[in-house]
C-alpha cells in the first residue's frame, strides 16, 4: 500500500501517469476516489496524485484535537515524500481550502492552483458565524448514519451515483473522527491571506452550489491572478456532477500554465 508516515500520521496516496504533477485533495468526509473522473481523463497526459486527508479514507488520525494547520503540513509533506519540487494543486471544498493554504504557506511548492467550490473562511457573514457552531453542536447529537444519509442525499441531487460514493466515504470514518476533523475544518481561516496567493489560479463553482456561492465573488476578486468559471448542471460535488466541463477547464488551465 502506498502509505507514508507524514507529520505524525499515516497518509495514503495513489499516483498515476507521468508529466506535470497535479495533486487532488478531496472535500470533508469524502476520500481519494472522489477524483476518479479526473484521474481517468487526465492521467494519460499528467501525473495525477490523489490522497486521503488525515481522518479520511485509508489515512490515519492521531488522538486528540485536530490542528487545521496540519492539513497543509501534510500536503507539503506528501510533496516532499514524492520528491516533487512543485505541483499544481487541485481541491474541492475543504480540499480547495487546504490547497489554498498550502499555496500561501509554501508558495515555492505550488506551480498553479485549482479551487473548486472552495470556502476560505467559516465566518464570512452573520449567517456563517452562527451556522458553523450550530452545525458542530447538532452533528454531535445526530446519529452518524443519519448524517451520512442526509449528506448523500444532498450531494446526489445532480448525479444520483454520488449517493453510493458518499455513503462509502462515510463508511470509512467513525463519528468521533468525523466530529474531531469537522471541528478542525471549521477553524480554517484564510480571508486575510488571499492576497498572498501568487500563482495562477483557476476557480470553478457549480452553478447550483448554494453551500459556498456567497464566497466566490470575494475569492476571485482577492486572488489577483485568478480566472473564474461557473460549471453548469453541478452542485457542490462539482467534479463528479459535471466531470466533462471540469476536466475541460483543468486541461485549458494546464495548457495556460505551460505558456506562462
| H-E order | EEEHEHEHEHHHHEHEHH
Strand adjacency order, main sheet? 1-2-4-3-5-6-7-8
* SSE-based structural type: alpha/beta
What Rg, in angstroms, do the CA atoms define? Answer: 17 Å
Nearest-integer average pLDDT: 94
Main sheet specs: 8 strands, mixed
Which percent range describes the beta-strand content? 15-25%
Tell me the number of strands. 8
Description:
The protein is built from ten helices and eight strands. It is of the alpha/beta class. Helix 1 packs across helix 10, helix 2 packs across helix 3 and helix 5 runs antiparallel to helix 6. The chain is globular and about 50 Å long. The model has no long low-confidence stretch (mean pLDDT 94).
Features:
18% strand, 10 helices, alpha/beta, 260 residues
How would you briefly describe this protein structure?
With 260 residues, the chain is of the alpha/beta class.
Amino acid at each position: 500500500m502506498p502509505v507514508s508516515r507524514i507529520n505524525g500520521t499515516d497518509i495514503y496516496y495513489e499516483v498515476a501517469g507521468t508529466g506535470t504533477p497535479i495533486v487532488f485533495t478531496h472535500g470533508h468526509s469524502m476520500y481519494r476516489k472522489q477524483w476518479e473522473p479526473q484521474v481517468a481523463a487526465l492521467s494519460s497526459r499528467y501525473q495525477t496524485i490523489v490522497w486521503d486527508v488525515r481522518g479520511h479514507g485509508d489515512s490515519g488520525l492521531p488522538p486528540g484535537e485536530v490542528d487545521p494547520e496540519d492539513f497543509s503540513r501534510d500536503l507539503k509533506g506528501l510533496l516532499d515524500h514524492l520528491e516533487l519540487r512543485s505541483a499544481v494543486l487541485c481541491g474541492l471544498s475543504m480540499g480547495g481550502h487546504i490547497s489554498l493554504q498550502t499555496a500561501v504557506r509554501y508558495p515555492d511548492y505550488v506551480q498553479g492552483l485549482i479551487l473548486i467550490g472552495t470556502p476560505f473562511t467559516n465566518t464570512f457573514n452573520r449567517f456563517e458565524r452562527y451556522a458553523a457552531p450550530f452545525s458542530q453542536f447538532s452533528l454531535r447529537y445526530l446519529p452518524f448514519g443519519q448524517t451520512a444519509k442526509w449528506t448523500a442525499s444532498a450531494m446526489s441531487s445532480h448525479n444520483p451515483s454520488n449517493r453510493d460514493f458518499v455513503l462509502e466515504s462515510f463508511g470509512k470514518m467513525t463519528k468521533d473522527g468525523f466530529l474531531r476533523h469537522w471541528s478542525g475544518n471549521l477553524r480554517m481561516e484564510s480571508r486575510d491571506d488571499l492576497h498572498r496567493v501568487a500563482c495562477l489560479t483557476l476557480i470553478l463553482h457549480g452553478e447550483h452550489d448554494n453551500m459556498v456561492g456567497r464566497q466566490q465573488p470575494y475569492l476571485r476578486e482577492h486572488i489577483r491572478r485568478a480566472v473564474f468559471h461557473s460549471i453548469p448542471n453541478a452542485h457542490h460535488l462539482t467534479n463528479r456532477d459535471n466531470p466533462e466541463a471540469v476536466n475541460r477547464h483543468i486541461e485549458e488551465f494546464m495548457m495556460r500554465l505551460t505558456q506562462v
